[in-house]
Amino acid sequence: MSPAMATDGPALAELLLQRLERAGGGGLGSLEAAAALGLEHQQLVGAVKSLQALGEVIEAEQRSSKRWELTPEGKEIVQEGSHEARVFDSIPAEGLPQSELMKLPSGKVGFSKAMSNKWVRLDKNADGGPRVFRAVESVQDLVQEKLQLVQRGEAESLEEKDRNELKKRKLLMEVNIKTYWIRKGSAFSTTVTKQETDLTPEMLASGSWRDLKFKAYNFEALGIMPESGHLHPLLKVRTQFRQIFLEMGFTEMPTNNFIESSFWNFDALFQPQQHPARDQHDTFFLQDPAEATDFPTDYLKRVKKIHSQGGYGSQGYKYDWKLEEARKNILRTHTTAVSARMLYRLAQQEKFTPAKYFSIDRVFRNETLDATHLAEFHQIEGVVADYGLTLGDLMGTLREFFTKLGISQLRFKPAYNPYTEPSMEVFSYHRGLQKWVEVGNSGIFRPEMLLPMGLPEGVSVIAWGLSLERPTMIKYGINNIRELVGHKVNLQMVYDGPLCRLDA
Amino acid sequence: MPTVSVKRELLFQALGRSYTDEEFDELCFEFGLELDEITSEKDIISKEQGDGKAEGASDIIIYKIDVPANRYDLLCLEGLVRGLQVFKERIKAPRYKRIMPANGGVQRLIITEETAQVRPHAVAAVLRNITFSKDRYDSFIDLQEKLHQNICRKRALVAIGTHDLDTISGPFTYTARPPSEIRFKPLNQSKEYTASEIMDLYRTDSQLKHYLHIIENKPLYPVIYDSNGVVLSMPPIINGNHTKISLNTRNVFVECTATDITKAKIVLDILVTMFSEYCEKQFTVEAAEVTYHNGKTCIYPELAYRREKVKPDLINKKIGISETPSSLAKLLTRMCLKSHVTGNGNNIEIEIPPTRADIIHACDIIEDAAIAYGYNNIQMTIPKTYTIANQCSQEDIADKLGVDISSTKAVHIANPKTAEFQVARTSLLPGLLKTIAANRKMPLPLKLFEISDIVVKDSTKDVGARNQRNLCAIYYNKNPGFEVIHGLLDRVMQLLAVPPSKESGYLIKAAEDSAFFPGRCAEIFAKGQSIGKLGVLHPDVITKFELTMPCSALEINIEPFL
């Protein structure tokens, strides 16, 4: 068997199998086998792996062992001889000037070694400067011979003293290598059957698949990702919320008006004109178009009266209500402005009919920006209008809504909102944080908001709201809102995000 | 929501018992408060200024309690304790009384005509024979600050001045004068300044600088003098040093100047009801007389008790409970709303004290009954409201058809937060380009889309603007990929059942647009109107967004297809 053939994959594997057959039940080590076959260890490992892939042909147990290897300089010496031998060889019978000897590649190291071996001598008083002469007839290059042993994988036969000496000269190094102890497997055979990678149409046509062996799949590897688009997490969570509202019989409100007048955003909701939320620090005002022009005149008069003088059983706020303030255009601060428009429209019907509305859309606040606050976010809002709704109805509706979100433990805290009374903040018990966290805000709209619209006296309107970002951040484990919303969104997060099941 | 800081020890002492932090948190929750933080002066200083500065600071435990924004009566320890003790039925709500001074010498405040242009209203009262301690004094100052920040709208609507009455003599005059003519020693200063100098002095003061704008540009500044010309205060900026209150002060003259008289009365009522607790005759306040320049005279504080009648049935129905009238009256009484059943048990008469200015309608009374009943004791029910759900209706959007988008203009924000946010967006493209710029490390190609609203001016709308739903898509790779974006358009149209056709379908025509590379841009027409453009982006645009690869994009108005 020529060495050229031994490097060929299948042939090499068969060589190894034959060797293993001869070695008997005890098996053999990969390092020794490589040395015996005159191969690089790595080539033999390749053969072991390809045999392992065939199934039970062999058993290979991984071991870690130390091995002596030649350094690049050591390899050179195996080829060229030691530096001292090379120096000796380069000196002719008439000797060589020391200065020239030193110019040789092995000159410096070789000279001092050859001197200490007493292979050469130095005549300092020779004509034309110091001259080096051979001191013996011939030399035996032991260093080369020892290194040849190492190369043959027989480093163990060297004395430890020699090995240390060669290591010190940086001709030898000790390396850790992964080796295998190889034994016959249950399906041992000295010949290798070629394995097919996969079924082909030809095999099916000819029926050859019956006689073929197939390469085992590596089930630990990952598959190839299908090419697909990815929805932003906010869209996924939004879809779930829409679904819940629709299941509960709520109709979607048209929220396509980011620009809103202060009238619908605040005044209609009985939020007084000096309220801090109407400050420049909380709300974005518009420069162009700066003012809204058109309001339902009679309704506007009723709103003015309820603020400045009261009525409908209310004391009002007793201040000078100004139309200029109501005209100011803003970026809406809540979608409740849309709810107000919808309830006003509902009140204009000839006969009142109960209504359930919902919306999920953007709102804008002039907030201090940080990891959990942006100047815009999505508000989720639900509204129910009917005769005789109670606070218990609000709580029951919230329980149903949050149960569909997978939140069952609820608690209600009295709160203050300018346009709802009673108002309640909704808390749920967070198992991770082990505390009650606020999940929404709710209440019954004030009569001062509803009656001027023209809704019948006995009609109550319950409402609640929450943000879309907060549940999304919790759901997808996002800590910085900028990674979720806006152009700094992390696309990898969008790619990797699972679908949204809020009840899970 | 305002936050009130109280020393835990003082709080428990006043409540007559101690609580664990959890118990107190629970009590707050039930009452509609929130125990926001448990801290100490030392903690606060070390958090704000670093550990080194906190050395030697007090480590007495402080509770920071969030109070609902309309409950001015809970903004100090005194009020919190009173509210909780009545809630827990450990005390009865005190009855506040205005009394005339025994000797008939009522303190008078005269408002002159000049104030009309700058700050036309004032109210006043006297806390007679009060006993301060360090904690009471601190609470008194703190409550004024809390009122200033909240109901007083940072002193714009109302400003409070409190003075040692024994250092001055009435009648007092509330007037307005040119700043150069006002001269006095401001609180805690060592020398006299003119009003103009005072404004300069406080321009860098971390607290007072926020109030200067209220009067700064007025020709006349408000000022209050005593009968000897001593300056009590220059509202809403600063008091005079002369009338400064100390721990030894026994008689306090309180004045509130205002642009909103209703709020001034509320603020005065709150301040005196809270601190009359420390007067010799507890919960009594000595009246003061305020005379307007037209001769109209008012006696303050009003301390008015108002009576309302609410049917028990209404309360039960609005909450969803069925309590007897007498137990409802009892619940309301626990909220400092003294109530009793009248008639044949079919009415409850409720007395609203001067501390509860937040009660303006029966719904406020009903809420208090619900809080006293306990929100979490209310039986949850599902409304019988029958409705049929609809997704956002098409007809609403249908009337937006036929709008020529080329006539649109951007909507401008008057008080933008950042330079990036000065107009409402009129295109989705910049957002997608920025998203790519922020995600340059991601493997190519990047294919992004957004379907979202943009805002355009529209004079036919009541607010002068409307939203428009756009679709924008972008392809970013080593090659421009026009065919990819074009293919996307074809696919979108296919899904919308719009065929490629000149007459009734869609087509694209070569166009010029500065955002696109010349000769690589086309306008998209569908249903006979232009709906947007697609093409290879102009290299200048690509580089401006700090991108390095060719890029093609598409942006269309999708409302015609909704």
Automatic annotation (TrEMBL), chain A:
Alphabetical keyword list: Aminoacyl-tRNA synthetase, ATP-binding, Cytoplasm, Ligase, Magnesium, Metal-binding, Nucleotide-binding, Protein biosynthesis
SUPFAM superfamilies: Class II aaRS and biotin synthetases, Winged helix' DNA-binding domain
Subcellular location: Cytoplasm
Domain named Aminoacyl-transfer RNA synthetases class-II family profile: residues: 236-498
Gene Ontology biological-process entries: phenylalanyl-tRNA aminoacylation; protein heterotetramerization
The organism's place on the tree of life at top rank: Eukaryota
Record-linked NCBIfam families: pheS (TIGR00468), PRK04172.1 (NF003210)
Protein name: Phenylalanine--tRNA ligase alpha subunit
Organism: Gopherus evgoodei (Goodes thornscrub tortoise)
Lineage: Eukaryota, Metazoa, Chordata, Craniata, Vertebrata
UniProtKB/TrEMBL annotation, chain B:
EC number: 6.1.1.20
Cellular compartment(s): Cytoplasm
Keywords, sorted A to Z: Aminoacyl-tRNA synthetase, ATP-binding, Cytoplasm, Ligase, Magnesium, Metal-binding, Nucleotide-binding, Protein biosynthesis
Cofactor: Mg(2+)
Transmembrane segments: none
GO molecular function, one term: magnesium ion binding
Major subcellular location class: cytoplasm
Aminoacyl-tRNA synthetase in keyword set: yes
Superkingdom to which the source organism belongs: Eukaryota
One BP annotation, GO: phenylalanyl-tRNA aminoacylation
GO annotations of cellular component type: phenylalanine-tRNA ligase complex
Statement: the UniProt record of this protein carries the keyword Glycosyltransferase: no
Assembly information from the UniProt record: Heterotetramer; dimer of two heterodimers formed by FARSA and FARSB.
Family: Belongs to the phenylalanyl-tRNA synthetase beta subunit family. Type 2 subfamily.
Record-given protein name: Phenylalanine--tRNA ligase beta subunit
Lineage, broadest ranks: Eukaryota, Metazoa, Chordata, Craniata, Vertebrata
